What we know:
Distance between the termini: 117 Å
Structural class: alpha+beta
CATH superfamily of one domain: Head domain of nucleotide exchange factor GrpE
CATH class of one domain: Mainly Beta
Helix content: 55-70%
Number of helices: 5
Amino acid sequence: MSDDPTNTETDAAQGAAEPLAPPSPAELDELRAKAAKADEHWDRLLRQGADFENFKKRAARDRQEDIRYANKGLLDKLIPVLDNFDMAMAAANNAQAGSADALKTGVSMIHSQFKSALLEAGLEELDATGKPFDPNWQEAVSHQESADVPEGQVLQQLRMGYKLRDRLLRPATVIVAKKPATESAATT
């Protein structure tokens, strides 16, 4: 043998070209069983992949539909209130003398029904009257001097505030009390 690398490659190529012994019938049966099992697993994998893709599409479609119709429950509660307002408007148009009290009672009942539907939907009122001013839940539009109410306390609520569960929807609009000018001048 020479040190020539081409001869080594030729010898290796000749060795690889030698035919292998054919598998025995038992080995063939084992290979066929493994191939069948591999095919079965492959088919199951393809089906599971397709099922998962269908699930993702269905979940996305359901999520879009839930978003689209998220307010259905609230609207179901508000439609009867709208019906009652329509009846009240019709009654007001056909009102006779002396029926103002009946109309006022009807509108008051509709107001209560409307408020109840909103409360059931999770709306909470933020009544700030007589409470310490909290900028997280209230919006001060002015200060007013008051000897009766401590400084920093809500003197008057101009507009009700609302929150949905723990999220602020609209702050209460308030007037905050401050010390009278005569008291602050006398203390200095």
